[in-house]
Write a structure and sequence with these properties.
It is a single chain. Helices cover 36% and strands 14% of the residues.
Length: 295
């Protein structure tokens, strides 16, 4: 089959196409769903039309691919193998600003055991079967065939990236990939459950940055929190889903820049509890949103 002109041009040597896009097209041709990452190794923010998942909330789906809009929205869920999408006009600004490339392991039938330090690597070498290994900045990615739910902090320095998650592309690594072993699946089953807060109280993990919003202004942050409160307050049905989607929207914009404080989160929880949500549901929804975004 003849390649479209945009794809031939992107693959041609000596052009001005970003290296992440060139790699993305090669990986997509091998069946690996890919997406661009901006500075800080995070996905590009949702477009204005999808900021509050008005497009339908693609992250709730368990298959990779773009949302109903043509932009690279919704983090891991934007990952695709479609070369026409990757080289589309809507994705072009993201590729021009891309600092790295990521992929959706679950969409490729894979699980990544992300080992963040020497102690985590030592534990894996003792307890996990050898498999394809990719060096990272601080540790290693161990790749297995098979999928499972993603989770952070299953052991000190160890995260699981598979379904509804993304991993940075760092090359093919070395070694032969083996099947996902039960000992890796058991890491989630045996993950300690945080103590539940008392009714009316909430304890969640948030980046603390003194209320400053470095990528825009404090006014932008305050306006966003106010809009999120209003969105929850205005929900006439599907309150559970609205709370989760609103938390997801706030974290997708401010989860990496360090501007959220406990006071901001308390405002969001208070709005949800005023609609009848329990503290437990609020805490779980916040944690699930962080996991979806890989925070």
């Amino acid at each position: 089959m003849t390649q479209p002109t945009a794809i031939r041009r992107a693959l041609a040597p000596g052009d001005d196409t970003s290296e992440p896009l060139r790699n993305a097209l090669r990986l997509a041709a091998e069946g690996l769903p890919v997406l661009p990452l901006r500075k800080g190794k995070v996905p590009f923010a949702n477009c204005p039309a999808c900021l509050y998942t008005s497009c339908g909330g693609r992250p709730h789906m368990k298959t990779p691919g773009p949302c109903t809009c043509p932009h690279p929205c919704h983090g891991w869920a934007a990952a695709t193998t479609d070369p026409e999408t990757l080289t589309s006009t809507e994705w072009a600004p993201a590729w021009r600003g891309a600092a790295a490339l990521a992929y959706h392991p679950g969409g490729a039938g894979l699980t990544v055991v992300d080992l963040d330090d020497a102690d985590a690597i030592a534990w894996a070498r003792k307890h996990l079967p050898a498999t394809q290994t990719v060096p990272t900045t601080r540790g290693e990615h161990w790749l297995y065939r098979g999928t499972m739910p993603s989770a952070n902090g299953v052991r000190p320095g160890i995260d699981i990236k598979s379904t509804m998650s993304y991993a940075r592309w760092l090359g093919f690594g070395t070694g032969d990939m083996t099947a996902l072993p039960n000992v890796v699946r058991a890491l989630i089953a045996g993950k300690p459950t945080a103590a539940r807060p008392a009714p009316g109280a909430a304890t969640v993990s948030v980046p603390i940055g003194g209320g400053q919003c470095p990528h825009r202004t404090p006014a932008f942050l305050n306006r966003g929190i106010a809009m999120a409160e209003q969105r929850i307050t205005d929900a006439s049905s599907g309150v559970h889903a609205t709370v989760y989607r609103t938390f997801l929207a706030v974290l997708s914009t401010h989860g990496q820049c360090g501007c959220l404080t406990d006071a901001h989160v308390a405002r969001l929880f208070a709005a949800a509890q005023a609609k009848g949500e329990s503290t437990r549901h609020c805490t779980d929804a916040w944690a699930n949103a962080r996991t979806t975004l890989g925070l």
